[in-house]
Write a structure and sequence with these properties.
3 helices; about 0% helix; globular; disordered N terminus; disordered C terminus
Length: about 750
């Protein structure tokens, strides 16, 4: 009979056998913890079961209840279908037979020919068992046994995340799979163990492992071995690195990664992480004891300890106050390249170092809706061949504060900013060792007022005023210990920004043209003299304003120098035209053309900056997305007199169905007498078929007519596997480390972690 409803908590237990696949327990718990006022998705209360069958019979004498023929049952969001379901009152056993299928609320599914379960749900078994878990994971076993609440066992089992059916529905061998005589999941120990396992590729056995185990994928954190790294190098020979992670508690772990090399001594890496209630720390380090070696792996010198540390931490004291630190140092300037240590030059705090330089810092910040305060200190270790750490300053304290004391002052907003910094050097750059370096201390106060209004015709006018005072205390002037001086200056600026956006609608696009102008008058920008060169010419302080990039982003800045030591003065005007086109289908394009004018030539800017003459260089910028998945940009600076290209930058990003790629180009004058820098960086992959493709990457130093690095490879991918094989040529020479050639293999298997093989 159909639509037979019954209150039967015991019979409903048959549905809970899905605990053989981990997500089920989580689903049941979610239902128990749901708010009591939330209506059930299937209309059933917590202990109700809905049952349909062609026939339902009960044998009172034998204590047997049997549902036959297209049995369908719903309980706690799960659905069970089978040819027959029986309940034996005497043994309290529940049995489902024939095409058993269980669908869970998360859409995962289990299949079996027969399932048997006791009333307590602590022991059960299934024959012809299969499971399709969340994501691509698929498992099947001749039999499955639930030994206890925490131990599940699969016999004659196979596991794969790959597709097992062709597009036409025919069965096919998965790309790879693991077949084992027995798989045991122990949830109390959070371990999955295998006995007599065989890894198969396209159905063919390629590796036999009698016994192995790994952390339970359902466990959040577990100690164990991670994916190893295998690499060949002309510097170290064959290298094998095997990481092992030890979990101390839910908030702390330590990963130890010994690197075994065939040509040089082993290198030990370690990575410690811990979270606290108010923050976290992250500490990496490495150590070896060996002689130095060159790019060919040839050793020289005496054995010595070599090590590095890369550490950081960040903590919240209150919702407004935060503090943190970083510690970065190495005993060997080429240590990271020699032992292939990655992720070195990344930001670990607010003070960010340049490439091949390390920075150690401590800082504290406070932020509210209308204020900002920070205080910190840092020191730098240089790893470039030309670096001399004695000439790098120790910076500290470095203090900065910003706030808005008055929300409305004469119709505009007022902002106050204060900064202070102290720099200490052991040695002055470019002078013999022993000459003391310049020590400087600066305190700055700024007040900035701005009022913006828009007329009925759309003209936007922003009036602004800026006051600034700098005080400097200098020591060891001209390389003479004890020679000191105190200097100060006041700077006042006033001006206006004016723009008039013009908008017109065409059939399929919106066009916006916006002419913009800025007029600024500044006075009092005196330079801070710190000495004289051999010819007697004055030398001015320039600790934070050495590099000036003049482009569309800095065209309308009040001070185009990035720091405080150098600043602009006099009367100047900047003009620009902006245009944007926005198509209805998502395409877009932006264009900027601008130039700056001064009342007189400037001796503050270098001749290569584009700002030293009365009329500056032209700045041009273009950005466009002509097609979906394609974006382009270009910006250039043209000489104001003969339109010679002084600086150029261009790039493209492409992401299409058959592949992706990018291109970057940069050309600029590096400084008086320093020539130019010009390089190109490009890479991408193109799939010539559904599974096969080619990859390429290159970085070329055009100024030196030499490649820095080149990659060319072949890639295979499907739904569960990616294999990269590529040739690499590195021509960059750093110190004693010369060029190198290698062939690298990266194998990535779905659900089994990161790349396997060479890094």
């Amino acid at each position: 009979m159909r639509l037979f409803g019954i209150m039967a908590r015991v019979l409903a237990g048959s549905l809970a056998f899905v605990v053989l696949a981990g997500p089920v327990a989580a689903s049941a718990q979610a239902r128990v913890d749901a708010p009591p006022d939330r209506p059930p998705a299937d209309g059933l209360t917590e202990d109700q079961l809905y049952l349909e069958a062609d026939t339902v019979s009960r044998d009172e004498e034998k204590g047997l209840t049997v549902a036959r023929g297209d049995v369908r049952a719903r309980f706690q969001g799960r659905t069970l279908t089978a040819d027959e379901v029986t309940f034996e009152a005497s043994t309290r056993l529940i049995r489902a037979r024939g095409n058993v299928r269980i669908i869970n609320p998360d859409r995962t599914a289990q299949f079996a020919q027969e399932i048997v379960l006791d009333q307590s749900l602590s022991v059960g078994a299934a024959a012809g068992f299969a499971v399709r878990s969340e994501g691509p994971i698929k498992m099947a076993a001749a039999s499955a046994v639930r030994r206890s609440e925490t131990v599940n066992e699969l016999n004659q089992a196979i596991y794969t995340p790959c597709e097992v059916c062709a597009k036409n529905g025919d069965p096919k061998n998965p790309t790879w799979s693991i077949q084992a005589e027995q798989i045991v999941q122990d949830r109390s120990r959070q371990v999955v163990s295998y006995r007599n396992a065989v890894i198969r590729v396209r159905g063919a056995p390629v590796l036999y492992i009698p016994i192995f185990w790994h952390p339970d994928p359902q466990a959040e954190r577990r100690s164990g071995f991670l994916t190893p790294a295998l690499q060949t190098s002309g510097r170290r020979g064959l290298s094998y690195e095997q990481p092992y992670v030890h979990v101390f508690n839910p908030s702390a772990d330590l990963t130890v990664s010994p690197q075994i090399n065939s040509q040089v001594a082993p290198f030990l890496n370690a990575h410690y992480r811990q979270r606290f209630r108010t923050g976290a720390i992250d500490v990496r380090g490495g150590f070896t004891y060996d002689r130095d070696f060159d790019g060919e792996g040839d050793a020289f010198g005496d054995p010595t300890a070599r090590s590095y540390i890369l550490a950081s931490g960040a903590f919240a004291l209150t919702p407004e106050w935060k503090w943190g630190f970083s510690a970065e140092r190495t005993s060997d300037t080429l240590l990271f390249e020699k032992y292939d240590i990655g992720d070195v030059y990344v930001a670990r705090g607010p003070f960010v170092p340049d490439d091949r330089r390390l920075i150690s810092q401590v800082y504290a910040t406070r932020q509210t809706a209308k204020s900002w305060f920070s205080a910190g200190a840092f020191s730098i270790q240089g790893l470039r061949p030309e670096d001399d750490d004695r000439t790098f300053p120790t910076v500290g304290p470095f203090v900065e504060g910003r706030f808005e004391p008055i929300a409305d002052l004469v119709g505009g907003r007022l902002r106050i900013r204060t900064t202070g910094v102290a720099l200490t050097r052991d040695n002055a750059p470019g002078v013999p060792a022993g000459a003391p370096g310049l020590d400087s201390r600066r305190a700055t106060f700024e007040a900035d007022w701005r009022r913006t209004s828009t007329t009925a015709g759309g003209l936007r006018v922003a009036l602004f005023g800026h006051l600034r005072g700098d005080g400097y205390s200098l020591s060891d002037l001209d390389g003479v210990a004890g020679r000191s001086a105190t200097q100060g200056r006041g700077i006042a600026s006033a001006g206006a920004d004016v723009s008039l956006p013009l908008v017109r609608r065409f059939d399929n696009a919106l066009v916006v043209v916006e002419p913009t102008a800025q007029l600024v008058a500044s006075a009092g920008a005196a330079l801070i003299r710190v000495g004289r060169d051999p010819s007697g010419a004055p030398i001015y302080l320039n600790e934070d304003s050495a590099t000036v990039v003049f482009d569309e982003t800095s065209l309308f800045r009040l001070n185009r120098f990035p720091g405080y030591d150098l600043t602009e003065d006099g009367l100047r005007m900047s003009l620009a035209g902006r245009a944007s086109v926005l198509w209805d289908d998502g395409r877009r394009a932006n264009f900027v053309l601008g130039r700056s004018f001064r009342s007189s030539d400037s001796g503050v800017f270098t001749t290569t900056s584009g700002l030293s003459r009365k009329a500056s260089d032209w700045v041009v910028a273009v950005e466009a997305e002509p097609l979906q998945g394609v974006s382009l940009f270009a910006r250039t600076r043209l000489d104001g007199e003969d339109l010679t290209v002084r600086r150029a930058e261009a790039g493209a990003n492409v992401s299409l169905k058959r592949g992706s790629g990018y291109f970057r180009y940069l050309k600029e004058e590096t400084g008086p007498g320093s020539g130019r820098r010009e390089n190109a960086d490009l890479g991408g992959e193109i799939f010539v078929s559904e599974n096969w493709g080619v990859t390429a990457y290159g970085n070329r130093d055009i100024a030196a007519s030499a490649w820095v690095i080149r990659d060319l490879g072949v890639v295979y991918r499907d739904d569960c596997t990616r294999l990269d094989i590529f040739y690499r040529q590195e021509d960059l020479q750093v110190g004693r480390l010369g060029s190198s050639t290698s062939i690298n293999i990266r194998l990535t298997l779905a659900t089994l972690g990161g790349p396997l093989g060479a890094r």
